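Known limitations

Structure tokens in this collection are predictions and should be treated as such. Users comparing against experimental data should check residue numbering before alignment. To illustrate the layout, the record for CRISPR-associated endonuclease Cas9 is reproduced below. The input appears on top and the generated tokens appear beneath it.
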Amino acid sequence: MFLEAIMNYRLSLDLGTNSIGWAIYKLNEKDKPISIINAGVRVFTDSRDPQTGTSLAAERREKRGIRRNRDRFLKRKERLMQTLIKYNLMPENKEERKALEKLNPYELRSRALDEKLEPHEIGRALFHLNQNRGFKSNRKTETKDSDASIIKTSINEFQNMMENNNVRTPGEMLYKLYKENKPVKAKIYGKGKDAKYEIYCDRNMIEDEFEQICKAQSSLGNNITEKAFDEIKDIIFFQRDLLPTKIGKCSAIPSEDRAPKALPISQEYRILQTVTDLRIIKPDQTSVFLTPEQQKLLFEELNSKKQRDFNEIRKLFGLDSSYSFSHEHMSKIKGNETSSELRSTKRFGKKWDKFSIEEQTEIVKLLLEEPEENAVKKTLINKWDVTDEQAENIANANLPAGYMSYCEKALYQLSESMKNNKSLTEALQDNGYNNLNPQMDGSMRKLPYYAKVLERYIGTGSGDENDSEEIRYGRISNPTVHRGLNQLQRLVNKIIDKYGKPTQIVIELGRELKMSQQKKKEVLTKQKDNETLNKKYEEILSDIGERNTRKNRDALRLWEELGKNPMGRCCVYCGRTISITELISAEVEAEHILPFSRTLDNSLANKTVGHRRCNRNKHNKTPYEAFGNFKEWENILARAKYLPVNKRWRFAKDAMENFEKENSFIDRQLTDTQYYSKVARIFLTAVCKDVWSVNGRLTSLVRRWTGLNGILSATNEKDRNDHRHHAIDAMAIGLIDRSFLNAVSKKSAKNELENIDAVLSNRISMIPWEGFFEDAKKAILEIIVSHKQEHGKNNKLYDETAHGIKTNEEGDKNLVTRKLIAEMSLKEIENIRDNKIRQMILEALYGTDKKEHKKILEEFSKNTGIYKARYNKTQYNYEIIKHGTNRFYKACIKADYHHIDVYETREGKVSGEAVTYLDVMRNKMPDWKKIKPKPKLLLRLHKKDILKINENGMEKYYVILQLEPGEPNNRVVIAETTVGGKRTEIMKSKDLRKYINYNKIKKLKPKKVKVNEIGEIKELKY
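Generated tokens:
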């Protein structure tokens, strides 16, 4: 096993949400790639539901929580019943208890306030309180967009209803509604903002009713002892405390927890950072940072307001509309959200600003940390001298959620420095926090568990050396990134085993891997907007007789940016009008505002459309360098103001200076500052000192320049439906270094002077060595794609819903379950057990469009009051589960199959038996093993297993996509290991997927193989 490198080599990695492409380049003595050693692809699942994008673990955790709550309710119910029996408030005899169910609990709860009840009637009333004990607010888990706000609104309305009807308890109100034949159960009505419950009780209201009933009955002669009162109350109203939230550690002081965003110092720090970063863009498009006086003025303004738009900031500084700001793409700048919320007249009012920052912090911490609303209100009233109404409003304030990167101590230090006109970088240096992005020295022999290296960035571990690594060091909360880094560890360590440690590592993280769920939603929204735009552009291009190509669509987009009026859209440089017909012609072209050779920026943000002649005159210069000394320059600037904000600054005299302010343009391409790119890079420095991450936009250009797209596609376009494109990306990534980018820059500069068309159409040829394409093609076509196998036991054991069991007249058993009618399919409606309800629904749906069914069913439920119905469900793969000391039972459908055993009897008959995850968890022996004489096991097939099949003398490798046991299928679904794209599309395509039934397995004699992380093959017995 090699650990020290047997040669100088560069490892390049393309990290995606569910794949890693990799390539290895041999380096010469100058660390320049000279040959391809190997390449491959590792594919794995991203631990998310493909439909919803939610974490599978989170989904299972949520369902587990529901089951636990249900179990706790049943145990509480049983415990309460035994306690009521103990104190003679319920009969011991089961039949007598059953008879009490006929009593109206609402009537008993109402009468109990004024009339003496029989002891068993009291027990019936108290037992009913336990059934619906009300909503208990937990302020620490509520957010402004949670269901809790709907519930709270409904509770307030119900309290108002009680006051208006002059009743004392919820039970008295509910009995009044019952007598008026009105709903008495909590049902939600309406959707979105209009959603609410007509009836919803707070836990405190039910607790108060319990005390009123017990007090009234004691005074009326029913002696409920203090011991009985306390014991029954404890059973009904006991609530477990929530587990504390794990908080990450400070990036500056790792021993300290990160500070909540709602703290006054957190808000102050964020405002200071914005103020010190903000630049004013002058009419000539040059930019300057705010003066100390302007910084102070803006800080005070933002600290006293919730937000400010840029027109208000211009007015504050006395600037006219010809001035703009560097952050203007945000439309508004956030102010002090915490103070703005708590300063409102219905909360602290002007008193808030008289508190010291220490007092404000104490109040905010009370609101953030105390889970009990009553405790918060009590403290606010007693210590901070507010009214009951103010305390209620303060307790329900919407404070910013989440945590900062730094702790309180660090935020105070950094804010103090920034108040003295220091930038964040300078503030960090002033306070001795110089090395916040430490990297290791590459001395580790192999990659450890990632959190061991990245402990500072995660900071949620226990620190106990007796715990497992994941608990001891913590883990990244994003399950996709967690799995990706674990797979990266396995892959890199396999490469080290074979080739030794790399000399250099280059990485690029896929865009989706770097996104939060919120960001992904924003991107999806933007994609939908782009789809709408593209449809519009397609129609426009069709109307003018032009092809619907990306180039033409981009041209239309850039043309629309020139002005709102199509008749007034003109070339920024010469001012001549560009008509829509002229736009798609040789006279007009897209051009890089800042030269591509000096920025390597090929995004639309760096492009506009202009006349070909103007672009030739501009060459490889910035707009100012090309035209700044001409009389026309003022007019050019005036026309540039119509462009989006992110383009205007590129016309400034100091545009290139601003572009390179953080890094040189080459450094910019060799640095990806996104959080996950940063942590992945630092993780890899454990085994290699020389690691850099590259900008993803450049990778597609390198593929095109080197011809790599042509390996899998005849059109030199990327083929995303072949997993091997990840390895092609890795090959492109591996070429991106300083010398390569310098060569690109020089070649682009020359073309900008001599052959601008080559730059604009990306027809630059950058071949690293003679025969590179042939070498790359050979390496790609030899790849055996590695798929992570799914042999683990951790999966859903049962479907979510428990079912009843009914036997029909023929003796067949049907499973029965209850479901919301609005969510039923037509087939489920046809199997509704109640003939009358089934007929009513079918009549309502008769002759209607299927698309309208859900809306019709919702209306049906609203009009009839019938929201749920029981229906029969034919299912054979279920298990009967007994509970309650075997008094009750339910049927649960086994959720998924772990594997299929394909076997052959002595008579030569081939069959298969599917084994569920539940069977595996229980170590249940499969039925086929009980057959005498014992059959021969041919293959054990799991999802993601790889089969090697000989087809016409050629060995092909297939991955199992799906197990389909049982009649009439008895088969597995397979596809070649290279096939990528959406699984649903693969399953639909007859060209991409194949079926293999059990008999075909005997005929084809496929070999089950294990393909390890780097594509090495090991044949398995079965």
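For this record: The radius of gyration is 35 Å. Residues 264-430 form one domain. Please report discrepancies through the issue tracker.
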